[in-house]
Amino acid sequence: MKITVDTSSCSGHARCWAAAPGLFRLDDDGYALPLDAEVPEDLLRAARDGESACPERAITVE
Residue 37's pLDDT band (boundaries 50, 70, 90)? Predict the structure, then answer.
């Protein structure tokens, strides 16, 4: 599974990071950055939590 971030849709709420700080990284302005790695199986639930927390639906886990 991979995490995709539509950076043009992200509004910088950082809710993904709040839900799963070990998976999501933020830039200096609080916008989500794409994850350049596969999501480990044991963190899949956290990735889905971060995806669900995004009010803009800018995050996809697939």
Answer: confident
User: In this structure, how many other beta carbons lie within 10 angstroms of the beta carbon of residue 59?
Assistant: 25
Q: What share of the chain is helix, strand, coil (3-state, %, to 5)?
A: 30, 20, 50
Q: How far is it, in rounded angstroms, from Cα 12 to Cα 35?
A: 16
What does the alpha-carbon distance between residue 26 and residue 41 come to, in Å, rounded to a whole number? 22
CA distance 8 to 18: 20
Whole-prediction pTM value? 0.89
